[in-house]
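Researcher: Let's do a round of design. I'm pasting the structure tokens now; please hold your answer until I've finished.
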């Protein structure tokens, strides 16, 4: 379970261009839950996802993964925690251009020094339809294939949490459709917490719950 208490993030604090990106955000996400976060551009969605993923620190408030407060962890244990517990999927894929699909997918397992079962690798590759693309470089793939590769990479260490920031934002509608389907199929199979920041309203149907944010705060029912 993820618990967020009164999270506030201020960029350029004390300066003329100060921005309250998050204001006192509190929420709870249960194990195995899929949650869609929606809101206008600039509303604070990516900031919230970065905080949840331990990629940036809030100015105040706490985030707990079960009993562990990740906002209290120093950088080194935090990076270990991220590696072992969180998978990330970004709008622009963030694959390593010099590495093959196979090496990109395996990279988090290698970095975490984790034993990787061939069976699990093969089944991920099969489900993401990348079997005949494993020796390709990212530049030789379509956008949809690159994002499926990024999803395999996010899942390779069997993380408790998968965080996605606009995962279909760069894709044509057919590829977006495939990515949505496979993301939720894998979530149902492996049951990580799945948090998806998106503009794509289709996700609200697929996810267990939708959280809307506006101007850095969670809004109640009915807000746009
Ligand atoms: P969203 O993902 O919903 O579009 P963001 O979380 O990226 O919104 O941004 C929320 C607000 O914080 C926006 O006003 C944005 O301009 C500002 N912001 C985001 N990142 C930074 C940054 N690194 N430095 C300064 N301001 C930022
Ligand atoms: Mg964003």
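Researcher: That's everything. Go ahead.
Model: Designed sequence:
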């Amino acid at each position: 379970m993820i618990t967020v208490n009164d999270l506030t993030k201020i960029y350029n604090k004390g300066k003329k261009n100060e921005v309250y990106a998050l204001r006192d955000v509190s929420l709870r996400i249960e194990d195995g839950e899929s949650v869609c976060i929606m809101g206008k551009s600039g509303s604070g969605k990516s900031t919230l996802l970065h905080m949840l993923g331990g990629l940036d620190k809030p100015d105040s408030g706490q985030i707990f993964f079960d009993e562990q407060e990740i906002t209290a962890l120093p950088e080194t244990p935090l990076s270990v925690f991220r590696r072992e517990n969180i998978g990330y999927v970004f709008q622009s894929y963030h694959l390593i251009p010099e590495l093959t699909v196979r090496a990109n997918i395996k990279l988090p397992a290698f970095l975490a020094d984790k034993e990787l079962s061939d069976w699990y690798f093969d089944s991920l590759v099969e489900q993401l339809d990348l079997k005949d693309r494993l020796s390709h470089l990212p530049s030789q793939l379509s956008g949809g294939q690159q994002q499926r590769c990024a999803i395999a990479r996010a899942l390779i260490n069997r993380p408790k949490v998968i965080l996605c920031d606009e995962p279909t934002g760069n894709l044509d509608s057919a590829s977006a459709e495939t990515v949505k389907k496979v993301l939720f199929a894998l979530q149902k199979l492996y049951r990580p917490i799945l948090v998806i920041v998106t503009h794509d309203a289709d996700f609200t149907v697929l996810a267990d719950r939708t959280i809307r944010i506006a101007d850095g705060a969670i809004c109640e029912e009915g807000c746009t």
